[in-house]
Design a protein that fits this description.
Length: 574
């Protein structure tokens, strides 16, 4: 077994694992009424789905970093010897689901000396530079190896060296044994499921894990996106925010033109997560109230006549939505790295299911959005928000904004915008935020929100846009927040008065519409240089952001976070 050297000192580890610095999001417990109310067949199904999700976590660890599994084994061996440093390091490893991550202050966290996060994570060779990567692809294309290059640049392959060339191996083939074990658990889950639609989906998903065929994934995704009235939730999330290597191709004009000439798309690699939960009926009913308005929102998107979008303004929206009580979040979706996701709108635009008539589905994470310390929240408001506007801040309004954000992912250009390279995800997340804000007034007119709720969404969103520290460019979700903050400040959406935020409520929506139009235009044109200029022009950490950030740091000492999954751990051992 390989030996590793710890990168964080005992003092640093004790600090980061202290409850004041380590946030815990608690998933369902063993005695949760949501679990106890399930039919016996669904309880059995849930057990097998939890086991499948944790097998997926093992797979994702390998595509996240080449050394994750051997480091995990090293930690477990050291813990058996009584090594306290290993014990504390393992807490952070389990929390961030890997050796390398980023904390809430945007500091890089490396748990072992000499092993840092790579642009290509674990899906590209460790010693592959950007320049060599581009050079090999260019040579292979010029030698007519088009099929081979397509396999390298698909979102579902691990790339390895093959002499002086590269080869792409489909995930299903690369991790065949573990995917087969996953499929076995999902097959067992299907046998006891009480819901016919959910059972059909599980059977399709199991098949897709046994054979390396993207179309099988598409069939499973298409069925999953129709699920609305099921007792359980099970998702294999596939998102490509982590791969920083593939996106560099957009920076190489010669290579980009070659790829276009041969009809090859450079799609960033998927990282895999598992979500297991119980659908909350009451919360889901509240979500569904927005669905009737989606075709109207689609019509009102900027430049709507210039592109196709996922929501057809002239037909029923292919969009399902569920609010879920979480049992387990594993792999990519459960990794606490600077933050953890509140909701997801899947499948993403690069997925095959959307080309065969499939829709999209929003899943909202109840346990992750709950605020456990209202006293801390009040301290934050006292420090940063104009006292007169406290009455408009509501933590539930953040959930309403998130609903708008997730639905806005289904609005706008349907194409995946791979030509925007490393800025693609930043632009898309910015679009989703601005889509949520830009339609607040329209949805108020249509009766979705009251005037009071309108003000609550606007004030809560602007207040929450302030971060503790400047993020790195690789943090798409946080970069777009800084961009919006600067954009809103320059146009008068808020002022800083006596070192506190005062939101100019009636100015916010028109400014959001302006930014949304600019973002959609960039997506339509697909010009890398314009996207880069737009991001860099707006990604500026201002003095006012630093002022509020310093206040936030004093109130919220959290550096890392983790999930606690009592029910899932019990089911794993049954």
């Amino acid at each position: 077994m390989r030996e590793f050297e710890f990168n964080l000192s005992m003092e640093e580890l004790e600090k980061r694992t202290n409850k004041d610095y380590l946030m815990t999001k608690k998933m369902l417990k063993c005695d949760a009424p949501e679990y106890l109310a399930l039919q016996e067949g669904d309880k059995e199904t849930l057990k097998h789905l939890v086991k499948a999700a944790y097998i997926l976590e093992k797979i994702n660890m390998q595509i996240d970093c080449h050394h994750n599994l051997e480091f995990k084994a090293f930690l477990e061996k050291e813990i058996e010897k009584g090594n306290e440093q290993a014990k504390l390091t393992k807490i952070l490893f389990d929390a961030q689901k890997g050796m390398n991550a980023i904390d809430t202050m945007s500091n890089k966290i490396n748990l072992a000396k000499g092993i840092k996060e790579l642009p290509g994570k674990g899906v590209y060779p460790e010693d592959l530079s950007k320049e060599e990567f581009h050079s090999i692809l260019t040579r292979m294309i010029n030698e007519g190896k088009i099929k081979e290059v397509k396999k390298i640049l698909t979102q579902r392959s691990v790339v390895e060296r093959n002499g002086d060339e590269l080869v792409g191996i489909d995930y299903i083939d690369k991790f065949k044994e573990d995917f087969s074990k996953m499929a076995d658990e999902i097959d067992k889950a299907a046998q006891t499921s009480t819901n016919c639609d959910f059972t059909e989906y599980l059977k399709l998903q199991s098949k897709a894990l046994r054979i390396a065929d993207p179309m099988l994934d598409a069939y499973a995704d298409k069925k999953w996106a129709t699920l609305q009235d099921t007792p359980l939730e099970f998702t294999i999330t596939r998102e490509n925010y982590e791969d920083e290597m593939t996106g560099t191709i957009a920076e190489n004009k010669e290579l980009s033109e070659l790829l276009e000439k041969h009809g090859i798309k450079a799609i960033p690699k998927d990282f895999l997560g598992g979500r297991v939960g119980i659908v909350n009926k009451k919360g889901t009913e509240a979500l569904m109230s927005i669905k009737q308005y989606l075709p109207t929102l689609a019509k009102n998107m900027p430049y709507a006549d210039e592109y196709e979008q996922n929501i057809n303004p002239n037909s029923d929206a292919k969009q399902t939505m569920v609010d879920v009580d979480l049992v387990a979040v594993t792999g990519d979706v459960g990794a606490y790295r600077g933050g953890i996701t509140l909701a997801e709108n899947l499948p993403n635009d690069d997925k095959l299911s959307l080309t065969i008539g499939g829709g999209r589905r929003n899943v909202y994470h109840r346990q992750i959005r709950f605020i456990s310390d209202m006293k801390k929240l009040q301290e934050r408001l006292d420090a940063i928000l104009d006292k007169e506007q406290h009455k408009f801040y509501l933590d539930e309004a953040d959930h309403w904004f998130t609903i708008g954000h997730e639905n806005a992912h289904s609005l706008g250009p349907k194409k995946a915008c791979e030509t925007l390279g490393k800025y693609r995800n930043i632009i898309e997340e910015n679009k989703a935020d601005m889509g949520s804000l830009a339609f607040v007034d329209l949805l108020t007119e249509l009766g979705m929100y009251t005037e009071e709720q309108r003000k609550q969404i606007i004030v809560t969103t602007i207040t929450d846009n302030f971060l503790k520290s400047k993020p790195t460019l690789s943090q798409a979700h946080r970069v777009r927040t800084v961009m919006q903050n600067k954009y809103f400040a320059e146009r008068g959406a808020y002022d800083i008065i006596d070192e506190k935020i005062h939101v100019n409520i009636d100015k916010v929506v028109p400014i959001a519409k302006e930014m949304l139009s600019e973002i959609v235009r960039i997506q339509i044109e697909g010009d890398f240089d314009k996207a880069e200029k737009y991001v860099l022009d707006n990604f500026v950490w201002t003095d006012n952001m630093e002022l509020i950030g310093q206040k936030l740091q004093k109130i919220n000492k959290t550096l890392n976070g983790r999930t606690e999954s009592e029910l899932a751990e019990k089911l794993l051992n049954e």
